[in-house]
Amino acid sequence: MKNRISYIIFIIVLITALCRIFYININAEKPVSEIIPAGETAEIKDNFFDKSDESMDGYAVTVRQSEIVPAGEYLARYGHTIDEQLYSDLEYYYIVRVIVTNKNNQFVGERGIDFGRWYIQGNDYILKIEDFAYSLSNETVGNSMQISLRENSDMEFILPFYIFNRSHSYEKISDDSCYLVISDYPEKLMLEL
User: Where do runs of H (alpha helix) occur along the chain?
Assistant: First the structure.
């Protein structure tokens, strides 16, 4: 008898939990995706990734150029070899040159943009920035992936995203339409590459 009562209580709790999960997910506010055409400027506004106090409001981003480069060639540009790279099976970098502008963000030195949260999204893959390659091409900001620019100023950054051929082939990524994602919520801002 006790087992039967325990079983009934377990089923009631399980059904209640599933109903609660369903109710929350069905009523959840989904982010709106905005695709910015290649070469146009994206105003970040009050969008964010994890926390609403990231304060990227007032910043704007423009993609100047994007290309896929063999890892050895990219590292050679900065006097390094593939052997110095952390990942032994890294074959390519997806290089994205962006201009970041602080139009009117007043939190200079306090808050700004964290490139570590940005990613390239394709049909079925996500590429992240590789730290070592980023540090080589962005020495003027002390190799920091978190930046805060003075008001009414802009700066160019080179963002190297790593590509492992074993996960997704060079051909697949180079033929795919992909986007640089600079915020996730409430608007997912995606810059066309």
Answer: 2-27, 71-77, 131-137, 170-175
